[in-house]
Amino acid sequence: MKSVIKKIISRSALAYHSLRAKKIIWWSVLNRRGRNRFNKYPPTLTEIEKKLISEINSRGIAVSNISALGLEKEFKTLQDFVQKRWVDADVKVRYDSRHAALRDGRLVSKDLFLINLWEGKCVLDLTHPAIEFSLSHPILNVVNSYLHLWAKFRDWRLQVTVPMPAGEREYASQRWHRDPEDQKLVKVFLYLNDVDEDAGPFTYLAESHEGGKWRHLFPQKPPSGSAGNDSDIPKEDIVVLTGKAGTVIFCDTSGLHRGGYARKNNRFMYTSIFTTPASVWPINFVYPQTFRTNNIEPRIHWAVSNNAKQKKPKLHKLG
Ligand SMILES: O=C(O)CCC(=O)C(=O)O
Ligand SMILES: [Fe+2]
């Protein structure tokens, strides 16, 4: 009896999610308000932003840098913050113990190759240089124009990767995958140090986003992402994003990607995550008690207004 009920629940959940993933529902109904706002207040774009938008539209990825985007001030303050965090005793202890765990083959959890550099809980402080970067004009101009709506700012991460011992297998996001958060989304990756081949550069399969020629490979199953085999990824369209400190990568990570498999060098990276309003995934931050949005730009207000109580979707499996 129990298993029959479980099956019915799973079937209904699957039916619900596959219905809401249909373009007519996802785009025309669930994203209607965000889309209308974008159409009513189209952003004024610089030539650089226009180029980036056209690039991400055609390839699913576009690369720029801090000075081209005019974000030097935010970057400098963020780098100072990261520098302070990096020498913090607590971060050092965590980094050293993960390093030792990796070296001794004791990596027990999938994300242990990443060290969180954020201090405490993720509290949405609009005056923090990281958040100022995420919600700045150039970033929102590109993200919103690619999504063709007013996007929601869902999450951020400030992390350093721990180099892997030679011959270690790939874990979690080090393997090819599509992210689960939405059918179309943008992650903005900002390199805080120089990232070479040995620092686990972000890697993408160009044109694996919506409308791209590789969209059919390992499709997402909303609200789940998907994982792919290395051997099935067409080599000719793989883009390996090595880059200097200050590199900014706009990427639709509903397309196939991987990264963070550092062999020798650390990689310091700040990630901003934007989805459409239709995403069923919860936000990962909390609002400060004295959060005021009176004087902020409407599209920023919209971006940071999220349902703080949204729960993780249950990933129902049949059979
Ligand atoms: O660490 C990386 O380069 C990839 C991270 C990733 O897969 C993600 O943020 O979705
Ligand atoms: Fe990912």
Alpha carbon gap, first and last residue? 15 Å
Strand share of the residues?
15-25%
- Tally of DSSP helical segments: 10
Helix content: 25-40%
Number of domains: 1
- Examine the secondary-structure arrangement and name the CATH architecture: Sandwich
CATH topology title:
Jelly Rolls
Tally of DSSP β-strands? 11
Question: Radius of gyration over alpha carbons?
Answer: 20 Å
- Overall geometry: globular
- Widest sheet: strand order? 1-9-5-11-3-2
CATH class: Mainly Beta
**Quick one: biggest sheet?**
6 strands, antiparallel
Mean pLDDT: 91
Which spans have pLDDT < 50 for at least 5 consecutive residues?
none
Oligomer: single chain
Structural class: alpha+beta
Unique ligands? 2-oxoglutaric acid, fe (ii) ion
- Give me the CATH superfamily: q2cbj1_9rhob like domain
Short description:
By secondary structure, the protein is of the alpha+beta class. It has ten helices and eleven strands.
